[in-house]
Design brief:
Elements (H helix, E strand, L loop, with lengths): L4 E5 L5 H6 L9 E5 L2 H9 L5 E8 L3 E2 L1 H8 L5 E9 L2 E5 L10 E4 L4 H11 L4 E4 L3 H9 L5 E4 L10 E7 L6 E8 L11 E8 L7 H10 L5 E8 L7 E8 L5 H13 L2 E9 L17 H15 L4
Parallel strand pairs: 1-2, 1-3, 7-8, 7-9
Antiparallel strand pairs: 3-4, 3-11, 5-11, 6-9, 6-10, 12-14, 12-15, 13-14
Helix pairs in contact: 6-7
Length: 311
């Protein structure tokens, strides 16, 4: 395995590359762009790279389905950290292009909902066609296949384009969450401001089946930060659920919730426990009474004494 190589959703000039370069270790790694999320993750699976950075959630569109599906299937991988990146688009064009001359635009499919209202106001007649990534859209504009692309302003120089309009976003404070993914290993020690990600498969479909899964978290005071259904491919109505929960697998409340889920789900895939990006320990909400590690230990000790006749 190449311990010095990181892959990412390419080509050069994507928001994913920008997010990857915020990591301190990126300065000492070989950063290799890949044509798709599956390609970036497969490079980790087959040992060509130590880790891959891929988008997993957008504050406007929600979960990135390509990443969720890849992490839910195939050889298991594990999330080691996350990166949050503010997102604003620039309209990149070939030098000299005027706004009135733009008839075709392109960008990543996740970008379209973030600029839809801007397009409606400023380019109502323009035809949108999706690209593999925002940077790939910039490349297509460079080649003359489209008039303009929505991408990061930083991609303009790479593709010989100029930003005709900058700071485009329908939603203020839009951001995308990226995850650094590697092969499974022991999770890093808890920091006190952590997140745990899992994928859960429902068993026999019946009224309240999803509620039963959620109750495993709720009764132990574990807050959920994301839950998204994804089809399993086994037919209409067959779903798994990608879940992000506050806390670390070594926290008693989280560990016991996962054990409860393992008892009732036909399949549970652990995707990792890792530090929450941009959250300090002092910013984490206080635990509900009865959900701290100490209280779980006291309850366990009490049960042991009761079983011995010493309660």
């Amino acid at each position: 395995m190449s311990a010095t190589r990181y892959t990412y959703l390419g080509p050069e000039g994507t928001f994913t590359e920008a997010a990857l370069r915020t990591l301190p270790e990126a300065a000492t790694r070989e950063l290799v762009p890949m044509v798709s999320v599956p390609a970036a993750l497969d490079a980790v699976r087959n040992g060509e790279a130590a880790a891959a950075l891929v988008p997993i959630e957008n504050s406007v569109e929600g979960g990135v389905t390509a990443t969720l599906d890849e992490l839910s299937s195939g050889e298991p991988l594990m999330i080691y950290r996350e990166v949050l990146l503010p997102i604003a688009f620039a309209l990149l064009v070939r030098p000299g292009t005027k706004l009135s001359e733009i008839k075709t635009v392109t960008g990543h499919p996740v970008a379209q909902p973030q600029v839809r209202n801007w397009l409606r106001r400023h380019l109502p007649e323009a035809v949108w066609e999706s690209a593999a990534s925002n940077a790939d859209g910039a490349r297509l504009v460079q080649e003359g296949r489209f008039d303009a692309a929505f991408a990061g302003e930083f991609a303009a120089a790479t593709y010989g384009l100029e930003p005709l309009v900058t700071e485009i976003h329908d939603a203020e404070n839009a951001e995308t969450r990226f995850v650094l993914v590697g092969r499974p290993a022991r999770p890093a020690a808890p920091t006190g401001a952590d997140k745990t990600s899992v994928v859960l498969w429902l068993g026999e479909d019946h009224p309240g089946a999803l509620l039963e899964l959620l109750q495993e978290f709720a009764v132990r005071g574990v807050n959920l930060m994301l839950i998204q259904s994804r089809p399993t491919g086994a037919g209409i109505g067959n779903y798994c659920f990608a879940v992000d929960a506050e806390g670390h697998i070594s926290d008693r409340r989280v560990g016991e919730a996962l054990m409860g889920l393992k008892r009732i789900c036909p399949k549970v895939r652990f995707l990792g426990s890792y530090p929450r990006a941009g959250v300090a320990v002092e910013d984490v909400r206080p635990l509900r009474r009865g959900t701290s590690d100490g209280e779980f230990t006291d309850a366990s000790d009490w049960l042991a004494r009761a079983q011995d006749g010493r309660a």
